[in-house]
Amino acid sequence: MNYNTSSYNPSSSGRISRLISEQADLMCKNKCGHYGNKVQEGYCSVCYKIYKQQQQQQNSARYGPRDEAFGPDGESSQGVFGRSGFATLPKSARLSLDSLSPLTGSFSKFEEKKKQQTDRKTKSFRSVFRKSPTPSSPQPGKKSPEKGSKEASHRHGSDGGSSPQMSPRKVANTDKDQIRDEINTFLAQIPNKRIVSDVVSKVKQCEEVILELLRQEKGSIDEASDIVQDFYKNFQAKTEIVKCYQEISMEDKETLMNLIEKYLTISLYKEFFSPMSTATEDETQDLELQTRIRQLNWMTCKHLEVALNERDRSVRDLVYASINVIIGMDSVKPPQEKLACVTQCSHHIIEALGKSKQGPTAADDFLPTLIYIVIKANPTRLQSNINYITRFCNAACLMRGEAGYFFTNLCCAVSFIQNMKGESLGMPEEEFQDYMSGRSVPMESWENYFLESIHAMEEMSNVVSELELRQQEFLKNVEKFKENMKNKEDRVTEQVDKILKRTPLTFKPRKVPTNIDEEDPALNETSLPSPLKPEVVSIVGASAGNESSVTLPATAEVEREAPSKATQVIPTSSQLVNLTGNDSEEYKEGEEAEVFESISPSPQSESETDLQQERIEGVEKLKEKVSRQKNQASLIDEGSHRQENFDAVGTSSKSDQRGSENVEEGLVVPSKPKEKIKSVDNNDAMESSDLDP
Amino acid sequence: MANRQSGGSNTAGGGAQRPNGAPQNKICQFKLVLLGESAVGKSSLVLRFVKGQFHEYQESTIGAAFLTQTVMLDDTTVKFEIWDTAGQERYHSLAPMYYRGAQAAIVVYDITNQETFARAKTWVKELQRQASPNIVIALAGNKSDLSAKRMVDHDEAYAYADENGLLFMETSAKTAMNVTDIFLAIGMFL
């Protein structure tokens, strides 16, 4: 329990101390990278504080209640299948478990110790593998103090927080709980309780024997392996021979075997995987293999004649997938699951090979590719994993089946990597050694290195060209959109114009009531021609009478006179037209002169000329009459207009209102086109949104 | 590492020799290893036996490294587990890992190539020396459809096989000649 003595115990830290340079004497004992102080027992200030705390805890643990020293994990090792499974177990099974519990209780302390040792070991190795290549600058310890442990790590025995230690423990427990639940639910399905109790007791027995063996100093992992393998074999034979096992089907027997194997390996994982007794061996092998693979990082497909087409993206993805799976092998516990990882990795490789070349994938192609993948992946603790599987997986499974085949291939790959020589790659030994030592680098590896960048470049250029296409498309759409917008604008302005034309915004002048009695200043009475008088003398009296009635308004007079005059005058003019021989229809005011001109120059006799003269005079008169008539007609128009105005004045008040309403309406009118414009705009907006790429 | 692995398997003892091979069940499971120089048609031979097909340019999706085939022999079900091996010279030393625990081995050579026959002879020698003593070894001269280009004499090979107690047949994965026969003969022998 004494911290100091344990920290320099050569048996527990021999390997580690080998990695630590002697210069480290001045440094903190905790190897946190700071300098230590003699007053603080060789620790730096931070580590000393933690160390003191730890010592206190250890003291309290030593003198406190015994149970506490077992920690929370002590319970989990008490019953084979834990308390969570008790409810599902039949009475007989429970009895056997209860009777055995005191026995196993004594192991719990030992088990915990073992676990901590392994924890520390793997931790220390990981820290060595981390980027710090020199052992004189290790990572500061991150592990919590381990109470009740003889060999508390002096490397990691810092950091007062207990959470980092608790979490891996919890994980281990959940793993155990899971398999416990699994096996319990399976056993609950079996009707024959004798089988259940038999399985439970046998498994327990096996577990105990192994723990007992490992507790002895001399007990080696190979002996444990022998025991486990014998147990598998015997149990397998038992299920085939013993009567009560005949009741369950072959599949159930297989499942049972698998579950038992899983249970044993998970619950004893810490003892089985890279165990203490052979730790140096396994870990040295791991390290050697790692270094070897690192030395081989210059290897390319060409060296091994691997048929992978690394230019194909899907092939590359499969290669990465297989690398991931083989690396993930280290993180699963039961050997079957590790084997499943190997199988899955192999399937990825076969698929990748199938995509790279013609023909089926035979071992001729598969093995080199697997070697290549292992070199590229450099899986952690590969050798330990292989040893673990070989020792504790049911040997019958390793010798046959797909998993067995691929595992054999993996072993072959590792063996090949370890024994590789220049000769096996078809190159002079000297060259091979140069590459291995890093003195020179083969051209191919540079090619390979560049290949990666070329892949990246190709991918990027693909992306760029894709973007370019999209950009073009986008620009095209923009152009289209612009055109659409222009069209829309034209249409809108057209519509607006149309609407404005239809309903112009004009302010009508306010209507002013007119006084009809008032003289129109524009109408100059004197400039007007004298009223028409009938030419026929016989009715002079009448005309005089007419004339005498001056009191009548001028308009009324004209109105009355106009028809009579028309009846008199028009026939004469038509006569005249007939005389001149011109088309009556063509007779117009402006053309009159022409007509007469055309008549005048015609050579005639004197009598005729006289007659003509007379006619011309008549025509002149007629002309006069017509013009007068016209004036009168205009007068009449004016008169009627005035009449209207007068009417309007009669309803003055009403019309005023209406007038203002009209004005208002006139103002309102343009609002409708506005609405239309708005709706058009909306359409445009919708179209523009459609166009948006 | 190979030593370690074999150490692990030895713990299983003879149990691994004939797993599930209980005669009363009439189900026999055999591990069969294919040995031979690369490009002698090992995988074509197996694919012909297992899938009954041969393509000059075979589909790429098939993995021919590990295949199983079940055949009926009289009233016994024989399940063959066929392990392909890499034929390249550089992997020669790894072969013991494959044929460890195998009940049968087919050594394949190409009748149009004298070298492959020489290699086949070394395989046979190695098997007789290192594999389990009761392993059944069959010698298959493949590509018998190309007899025009024959380089290995049939009688010579037959005499060699007779001398060493091997099963011998000339096969053709292309025409399926003797392919099933050689597997059945092995099954019968076992």
UniProtKB/TrEMBL annotation, chain A:
PROSITE patterns: VPS9, ZF_A20
Residue ranges that the Swiss-Prot or TrEMBL entry lists as coiled coil: 457-502
Region (Disordered): 58-83, 108-172, 510-530, 560-693
Key words of the record: Coiled coil, Metal-binding, Zinc, Zinc-finger
Basic and acidic residues: compositionally biased ranges: 109-122, 143-158, 612-627, 672-681
Residue ranges annotated for the VPS9 domain, each copy included: 283-426
SMART domains from the UniProt entry: VPS9, ZnF_A20
InterPro entries: DUF5601, VPS9, Vps9-like, VPS9_dom_sf, Znf_A20
Biased composition regions of type Low complexity, renumbered to the chain: 597-606
Location of the A20-type domain: 22-56
Biased composition (Polar residues): 565-582
Domain of life: Eukaryota
Compositional bias of kind Acidic residues: 583-595
PANTHER family associated with the record: RAB GDP/GTP EXCHANGE FACTOR (PTHR23101), RABAPTIN-5-ASSOCIATED EXCHANGE FACTOR FOR RAB5 (PTHR23101:SF122)
Protein name per Swiss-Prot or TrEMBL: Rab5 GDP/GTP exchange factor
Native organism: Orchesella dallaii
Automatic annotation (TrEMBL), chain B:
Pfam families: Ras
Keywords for this protein: Nucleotide-binding
InterPro entries: P-loop_NTPase, Small_GTP-bd, Small_GTPase
Superkingdom field: Eukaryota
Family: Belongs to the small GTPase superfamily. Rab family.
Cited PANTHER family: PTHR47978
Name of this chain's protein: Uncharacterized protein
